[in-house]
Amino acid sequence: MVRKLISSLAMVSAGLLLITYMILNGEKLTALSTQWTDYNSGTAAPIASLKLSEDIVYQYRLKTSDILDATGKYQINILPLPEDVFAKTLKAMKTSQLVIGKQATPLSGSTDESALLAMTNDRKIYLVADNMLKPMMTAIWNEQQRLNRFIYCANQELCQSLRISSPDFGPFEGPFSKSDFIVGRRGLPRGRWARGPVTRLDIQSSKKQEVWLQLNLLAVHRDQKISFRGAVSQAQQTDQPSETVMAAGKSLTSAVHIVLLNLEPGTNTLEISFSIWDKPGSSGKNPVGAYITAIGIYGYKQR
Asked: Which of 34, 184, 187, 206 could form a cystine bridge with 178, CB 3.0-4.6 A?
């Protein structure tokens, strides 16, 4: 009798947990269900209509893009337009809009007037003239290559004089969609987790030199303080406004730190200390201090 009662209570509890999960994740489940239905039924890509005032001057099937921006949040679509249509749209930009399904999106122009941009919740759509398509794709390819390197520097000579490694970095991850099935990956841009409370960088330099190291990261806590020790002449956090994003099931805060390094020939050590870090939730996992999205190296010249 007791066993039956316990079994019944367990089933009721499981049912309540399932209902609670579905309520809390209803929006995500609905989105996934829609995507699955579209996939199975072969639903066509939506039509994007370019409108000048009330006239449709161009239409285009807006397919899913494999190109993502640096955050992994937005798909990047390129919409090539006939040169005369692009010129008219640029001239009448204030009364132009891109209509996708029933959603109307206003257009904004780049500073050099080489492209127009329409932004939705999940896409960045660049409208360019046919003759600008190749330069635009080249610029995007170069940007992707820079981001994929993770560690980049101002010029080839500087790159060849340095080698940076760390025993405390996790593997490369991202970018991942905000609706990824694995909670610990959702919304993460490309990057690597750094171990807390201290991550060590080993910097091999072929000569004596001073360089700026720029560290772009997502901190695991908004009040987290980061300090540097080792081959450091000075360090500072930039004044750019921080942004809090939900990624990997955490609330992460963007930050950029600039460190002036005084490097000697051979191995130089830079220790990055985190005042707050996330302890692992299960055995076998490492504590994490921050998610590093990029490391930039720039030459330093004394005035």
From this structure: 187
Delimit the domains of the chain by residue range: 47-142, 150-299
What backbone phi and psi angles, to 5 degrees, belong to 84?
-70, -35
In sequence order, which residues have a C-beta less than 8 Å from that of residue 142 and are 6 or more positions away? none
| Global pTM value | 0.52
Adjacency order of strands within the sheet including 123-129: 75-81, 123-129, 116-119, 108-109
CATH class of 150-299: mainly beta
The string of pLDDT tens digits covering residues 189-222 is 889 999 999 999 999 999 999 999 999 999 988 8
Cβ-based burial of 96 (10 A; exposed 0-12, middle 13-18, buried ≥19)? buried
Do the bridges between strand 96-100 and strand 75-81 make them parallel or antiparallel, or are there none, so unpaired?
unpaired
Query: Which single residue is written with the structure tokens 């009040």?
Result: 223
For Cα atoms 34, 35, 40, give the angle at the middle one, nearest 5 degrees: 100
pLDDT at residue 303, rounded to an integer:
34
